[in-house]
Write a structure and sequence with these properties.
Blueprint: E1 5-14, E2 18-21, H1 22-25, H2 33-40, E3 44-47, H3 55-70, E4 79-83, H4 94-102, E5 108-112, H5 118-131, E6 138-145, H6 155-158, E7 163-173, E8 178-186, E9 194-196, H7 207-211, E10 217-219, H8 221-241, E11 252-255, H9 260-270, H10 281-284, H11 291-299, E12 308-315, E13 319-326
Parallel strand pairs: 4-5, 4-6, 11-12
Antiparallel strand pairs: 1-7, 2-3, 6-7, 8-13, 9-10, 12-13
Helix pairs in contact: 3-4, 8-9
């Protein structure tokens, strides 16, 4: 019997309409377009606007886009893995809220939290359910409403993050296409450098934590950059080396869109042609769990069956990893 791999068979994506430009941010904090672009590569980011809207509302149009492309109904989905850092509520899982909104009445699901590496970890997790035969259709969602946890008085973070969502459908493949290898890593010693100070069980919400503005993303940029620029590049190179792949063998590099300099370092470390690196950070910023699926969604028509893709990510915690997959359609 041929080995079963988990293949991506459809992609959906969504970014909200409102565009927050560097120029607009310069009226809020002490910054300017040149400063932001030089250090991050970001020109603008999308922001979710509207009362009572959350991360699941970003993911719904992405999922409907996917279902339409694949020509299936939501009731055919077996499992939903919802990768997010900004859940709609502490509980229930956003996967539950989302499944109800799209009509996935036969799916079970859960949220996966690994900061910016979440979608990559979600793909790796979802592939296990496909390979084992437990599930036939797994929907992996990467979505974040980062504007809900960004302090727009903090120049270090407000220039980086945006809102968006993307999702992929995983299905069994016995022809050698799909996810062929993955490496996932984490290091909890990175917690002090990128986290949210309050709102969890260690430091529940109070008047004091709100007044101290501790319910926003906190980042020590230099420490995070130093760790990310090395580890994201190294893990991408590692997954290539153990599959005997060179830069010439790779059709596309799909890196997490955290910082253009980190992407450039990954390109250099892997020996992949810079023209093969998918980059859309200038238009979306860092959408956390949504960066990689948004890249796949935007470049979908350029992929060819049999293309070798390398996915790589780095996130707070710290978390990082890489996936090698062969495109299936």
């Amino acid at each position: 019997m041929s080995k079963i791999h988990a293949a991506i068979t459809a992609i959906g994506g969504y970014a909200p309409d409102y565009i927050l430009t560097n120029e607009e941010l310069s009226h809020t904090v002490d910054t300017n377009d040149e400063w932001i672009t030089t250090r991050t590569g970001i020109k603008e980011r999308r922001i979710l606007k509207g009362e009572g809207l959350g991360t699941s509302d970003l993911a719904v149009p992405a999922a409907l886009d996917l279902l339409k492309k694949r020509g299936i109904g939501a009731e055919e989905i077996d499992l939903i893995i919802f990768c997010t850092t900004t859940p709609d509520m502490p509980f229930p899982a956003t996967a539950n809220i989302f499944s109800n909104k799209i009509g996935a009445i036969n799916a079970w699901g859960f949220d996966l939290q690994a900061a910016c590496s979440g979608f990559l970890f979600g793909l790796t997790t979802g592939s296990q359910f496909i390979e084992s035969g437990k599930c036939k259709k797994v929907l992996v969602v990467g979505a974040d409403n980062m504007s809900s946890i960004v302090d727009y008085e903090d120049r270090a973070t407000c220039i980086i993050f945006g809102d968006g969502a993307g999702c992929v459908l995983l299905e069994p493949n016995t022809d050698g296409y799909g996810i062929l290898d993955s490496i996932s890593k984490s290091d909890g010693s990175g917690v002090p450098f990128l986290h949210m100070k309050a709102g969890g069980s260690i430091k529940p919400a109070s008047h004091e934590t709100i007044n101290a503005r501790e319910h926003f993303a906190y980042q020590e940029g230099k420490a995070v950059f130093k760790f990310a620029v090395t580890n994201m590049a190294d893990v991408a190179a590692e997954v290539m080396e153990r599959n005997n792949l060179t830069g010439d063998d790779i059709a596309w590099l799909v890196p997490h869109q955290a910082n253009k300099r980190i992407i450039d370092a990954t390109v250099a470390r892997t020996g992949i042609d810079p023209e093969k690196a998918i980059v859309n950070i200038e238009r979306y910023g860092n959408t956390t769990n949504a960066t990689i699926p948004l890249c796949l969604w935007e470049w979908e028509k350029k992929f060819k069956k049999g293309d070798n893709l390398i996915l790589a990510a780095f996130g707070g915690g710290f978390t990082w990893g890489s996936i090698y997959l062969k495109w299936a359609y």
